[in-house]
TrEMBL record:
Gene3D superfamilies (alphabetical): 3.30.1390.10, Single helix bin (1.20.5.710)
Name the record gives this protein: 50S ribosomal protein L12, chloroplastic
Keywords in alphabetical order: Plastid, Ribonucleoprotein, Ribosomal protein
Superkingdom of source: Eukaryota
Organism: Antithamnion hubbsii
Ribosomal protein recorded as keyword: yes
Pfam families: Ribosomal_L12 (PF00542), Ribosomal_L12_N (PF16320)
Originating gene: rpl12
Stretches with biased composition (Basic and acidic residues): 107-125
Residue ranges of domain Large ribosomal subunit protein bL12 C-terminal in the record: 64-131
Length: 131
């Protein structure tokens, strides 16, 4: 990194929460951008994995995404009903979600909830995975 960027980073670290919020607001106005767009578009920060110790334990995953992979066409109505009951979506939204499989049904849910959702969808005739 150049010294200019390092200096900016150090200055940013010293900002209070209110100052940081004001900075974001000013950047949005100055450059005609929306800071919330990248978060809603699914773009996120993925920290680099550090592998200092080759024998380090692998952490057990605690949050899962339930993904509707596919479904039997003859069971489409049952799958729609299951998706609606699990997500609270309306008929049109649930139909669009089911027809656009593979699609995430539930994000960042506990292992128990994910397994329960998977079970209900599989009982309705869907092929589901947990990621």
């Amino acid at each position: 990194m150049t010294t200019k960027i390092e200096t900016i980073i150090e200055e940013l670290k010293s900002l209070t929460l209110l100052e940081a919020a004001e900075l974001v607001k000013q950047i949005e106005e100055t450059f005609d951008v929306d800071a919330s767009v990248s978060a809603s578009a699914g773009v996120g920060f993925i920290p680099a994995a550090t592998n200092n110790d080759a024998s380090s334990e692998v952490e057990e995953k605690t949050e899962f995404n339930v993904v509707l992979e596919e479904f039997d066409a003859s069971k489409k109505i049952a799958v729609l009903k299951a998706v609606r009951s699990l997500t609270g979506l309306g008929l049109k939204e649930a139909k669009e979600l089911v027809e656009s499989a593979p699609k995430v049904i539930k994000e960042n849910t506990s292992k128990e909830d994910a397994e329960e959702i998977k079970s209900k969808l599989e009982d309705a005739g869907a092929k589901v995975s947990m990621k």
